[in-house]
Amino acid sequence: MTVGFRIYPNPQQKASPDLVERYRKLPVANVSDSMSRMNAAGARLRPMHGSGVLAGPAITVKSRPGDNLMLHKALDMAEPGDVVVVDAGGDLTNALIGELMIAHAVRRGLGGVVINGAIRDAASVRAGKFPVFAAGITHRGPYKDGPGEINVQIAIDGMVINPGDLVLGDDDGLVCIPLADAEAIYAATKKKHDAETAQLEAIAAGRNDRSWVDEELKRRGVEYMG
Question: Is 18 exposed, middle or buried (0-12, 13-18, 19+ CB in 10 A)?
């Protein structure tokens, strides 16, 4: 066994297509709130594509910064709908993916790509709807030497991602939903989203209750001056 040069099989248990589609309709912010705001990939990972939600089960890659050998292999291993998530240490010196590799991912029907690192061919990515999240952009190309590992546990800014977990991204950022907790988190998120939808309707109708603000100020002992 060579630590740092290992490829594990794709997860047998992963987020189902039904679960993915249900989550796709929910805002990342509501999911994050329902997870006590404890599970996020940081503010640097931003959507680089034109529009659209990223949602799908994770195929994970741990890569040496600036090297995309294992990313190439993961794109070949991933199944339709899967999201390839790469922890490359957040280094922005070299781009790990560009137009050609993304075209290959699109052709294979993947659900998206997350790069904790840089991409290139940004104009092409921005013009398309294939979901790509990354930490930055550079024209400098990658190395293809390794090391790297596929389908191992990774972490991005403290957000732990296991193969098969559900990865969800929109304009607010990226979140990972642990597969074991996905149904419970979905129920809590759906309840919160429905409540916020009702509140928006109340705001539009001019009947939104704001009394909680003064009640909270009073509870905290705020003193009005002057």
Answer: exposed
Helix axes 17-24, 182-204, angle to 10 degrees: 20
Of the pLDDT bands very low, low, confident and very high (cuts 50, 70, 90), residue 163 is: very high
Given pLDDT bands bounded at 50, 70 and 90, which one contains residue 42? confident
DSSP characters over 189-211: HHHHHHHHHHHHHHHHTT----H
> In angstroms, rounded to a whole number, what is the distance separating the alpha carbons of residues 121 and 129?
14
What is the distance between the alpha carbons of residues 211 and 61, in angstroms, rounded to a whole number?
A: 49
Residue 147: asked if its preceding bond is cis (omega within 30°), the reply is yes
What's the rounded mean pLDDT across residues 132-160? Answer: 96
Helix/strand/coil percent split, the chain, to 5: 35, 25, 40
pLDDT score recorded for residue 165 = 98
Give the phi and the psi of residue 114 in degrees, each rounded to 5.
-120, 125
